[in-house]
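Researcher: Quick sanity check before group meeting.
Model: Go ahead. Protein one:
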Amino acid sequence: MVLVTDSKQSAFSNQLSAISFQQSAFSNQLMRYAHATRTAIGSKPG
């Protein structure tokens, strides 16, 4: 029982760290997109 619980918990924490990795990759993309948008807007004449 203990082994099963441990493996379930480690699978769960693996999932959690995968999710947080995806979130940070997503926010990095958002920041890059926002920067590109700001640069494009700033370089428009007028």
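Researcher: Fine. The other one?
Model: Protein two, sequence then structure:
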Amino acid sequence: MKLIVGLGNPGNKYAGTRHNIGFVVAGKLVDPLLGRPRVRKRFAGELAEAEYEGQRVAVLLPETFMNASGTSVRQAVDFYQVDPAGDELLVICDDMNLPVGRLRFRSGGSAGGQKGLADIATKLGSDQFSRLRFGIDRPPPPMEVVDFVLSRFSAQDRGVVDQATDVATEAVLQWVVHGIAFCMNRYNASAPPG
């Protein structure tokens, strides 16, 4: 089983914000690419299960709010008996340290200030799980970080973001088939689209 988790905050208030880019990428996986699987409420989130290229895949969107994502992820990891360090878990999240649209796969490591990743690491007892970081850039001074991550992308960035979410969706499917090392080699050196 491959467990893919898209991080974000639930509710219309947060739809389309920078912090919800994990929801956007994971949502693109659920609909056309995995054959419109049935989405249901499970593990304190929305869950879809499907098969892709012979692999069982579950896509989870935690509804616990970003900073408490670990609760939902832990429930799913335990249920599916997924080995987070064994290339069976991929978490998709925003990253302020990357330019808009830049993608970076990592096989583990620090949360880098991303509180959803930090909570998952705490709940799993390890930071050794794969993640796909999606660049959202840094806030312009004097804007506060919280206001920035909860803001929407500018019209100028929108085209880059749309292209990058398409690339990220393809990249996640490559992870399902080929794993994290393949994806790090293929996608980490790429410049953002646009």
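Researcher: One line on it for the slide.
Model: The first helix runs from residue 21 to 33.
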